[in-house]
């Protein structure tokens, strides 16, 4: 892999993916580290991939030009950590969910993927077994076809949303109901690796080549496809800035208008993802968005007059009362919760 590391072909091409995030396609000869330095100096960082939509856009943009460096790297000294397959679901260890009083999952085990019978156990990702998918409507589906872990993940992502992910799903009542009357082992959306994104985050999205994903993943740097001429992408979460000061919604609105272009608005899921990148570094549990409820008009409106055509409310987060504005969670699922506008939180501005 050394020749892949040190000889990189870059093709300069601007790809406008959405208004608050831009991908660039660069033509130069650089190693991964040099590419990272280039991206950080001129933009924000090497490309980060949030989900299958991003993956599809990156692959389509390559146009058979070869491989593509992205910001995923394995420079962690082999320190493997657990992740859930469903993007945005953070792994939190719970001994009671694992077999043998939590031995598995905390010590080096026999494999890097998680299967469930009565408890979770880490096993080789190559075993064929049934699996459980998750849908956006919060329904679980038992798939009675034997596949290895990556095949199961691909099936769930194509036909549903992803493999079942998160302890609220894995240990929940709906999951228990699927096991009634069945003595079975099934794949969960649980995997372990030592990969991190260039910005230091451990965001869980992966889309490995079936031949490269195995239980001996070692010192590699992530790219797309498998030729010796490689391309790298970089992204720019431009026009977004997190203000780590606690202010009321009105104070945040005035600050953004005076110092920048205004409080951030979110009109599609891609903008939501870039806002999440910034929000994760907040020092408050929520960050203000530029969305407020109008008692007079009886509706929610963005202060920059954008149409409210995308929403990500928490289950009980939408309270339509006077004096309410939207705070987005600064962690977890990054859902929206209506807050009294005199609460004080960090906030996001358009530059």
Can you characterise this structure?
The protein has 351 residues and is an alpha+beta fold. The protein folds into three domains: 2-74 and 203-236, Mannose-Binding Protein A, Chain A (Roll), CATH 3.10.100; 81-193, no CATH class; 240-350, Mannose-Binding Protein A, subunit A (Mannose-Binding Protein A, Chain A), CATH 3.10.100.10. The chain contains eight helices and 21 strands. The chain has helices at residues 2-6, 32-42, 52-62, 149-159, 167-170, 173-179, 249-259, 269-279; strands at 13-18, 21-26, 45-46, 67-73, 81-84, 113-116, 120-123, 129-134, 140-147, 162-163, 186-193, 196-197, 221-224, 230-236, 240-247, 262-263, 286-294, 299-302, 324-329, 336-340, 345-350. Strands 1, 2, 3, 4, 12, 13 and 14 form a seven-stranded mixed beta sheet that branches. Strands 5, 6, 7, 8, 9, 10 and 11 form a seven-stranded mixed beta sheet that branches. It starts with a helix and ends with a strand. This is C-type lectin domain-containing protein. Keywords: Signal. Residues 1-21 form the signal peptide. Residues 18-134, 135-232, 235-350 form the C-type lectin domain.
